[in-house]
Amino acid sequence: AFPPQKNTHWHDAVCGTTFEDIAWAALVRPHRPEPFFRQALLVLDTWQKLSDHPCAGFLEPFFRPGPACGPLAAETLGYYLATEDKGLCALAADAVSQAAAANRLDAAALARGIRPFLMSRALPTGRWTRGLAAIAAAGHSALARATILELLDFPPSDPPRDMGGMLELLYELQIESGAPLDDADALECLRRISGGGKIAKFSKKLVALAA
Question: How high is the pLDDT of residue 187?
């Protein structure tokens, strides 16, 4: 639990500072819950590792029936997938799977939620690779694969660091699907990647899977 303190991101946390308080706030949220998810984005420290993370309470709404995920809800999922806390990351992956299974979230919305944080280069790309791999392992390979394809819109001369790991996961998921790679925009991005290393290796492998 985090007691409210001045000069911290938990100061004036209207949803509370414990899992119990936040989970209760999720139950009484209005029909349009975007302000609740705004709080979820403001208070999370993505570099923090805890045995019992109170921010897990912000993921509670995704495990219950509800409306389609709005922009801040999708950003909450995207941001929480990249937390250093592996337990919270795994819970976020489960929340994505639940929301997708309930037709509340699709790959385009999830990618929009991930993109601003991924493209900021402020967090390791490998964290999203880990989260997307967990989503695929939970039976949502198509969602994970489509999300990565949606994210392939960066300048090929300036990709996010360690993007090669995500392309390796995409290659594995594409092979698993047995379908040709036919996303024109993603292929254009992959074809323009130059240099060496894992990102170049798997961009070439993926281009070879084109229809």
Answer: 96
Query: How big is the chain by its Cα radius of gyration, in Å?
Result: 18
Q: CA 101 to CA 108: how far, in whole Å?
A: 15
Select from 126, 128, 210 the least CA-distant residue to 174. 210
Cβ-proximal residues to 141 (8 Å cutoff; 6+ apart), any chain: 173, 176, 177
Query: Which regions in the chain score pLDDT beneath 50?
Result: 1-8, 10-12
Query: Residue 127 carries which side chain, given as an amino acid letter?
Result: R
> What six digits make up the tokens of 75?
């950003």
Give CA–CA dist 100/135, Å, rounded.
10
Digit-coded pLDDT (tens) for 76-103: 999 999 999 999 999 999 999 999 999 9
Which among 183, 181, 202 is positioned nearest to 193, based on CA atoms?
A: 202
Q: What is the DSSP letter of 61?
A: G
User: For residues 91 and 76, what is the distance between their CA atoms, to the nearest angstrom?
Assistant: 12
Rounded Cα distance, 144 and 97, in Å: 10
pTM over 0.85: yes
Residue type, 43: V
Residues 153, 19: Cα–Cα separation, whole Å: 36
Q: Which of 66, 21, 63 is nearest to 39 (CA)?
A: 21
Amino acid identity of 46? T
**Cα separation, 12 vs 206, whole angstroms:** 48
Amino acid at position 22, single letter:
I
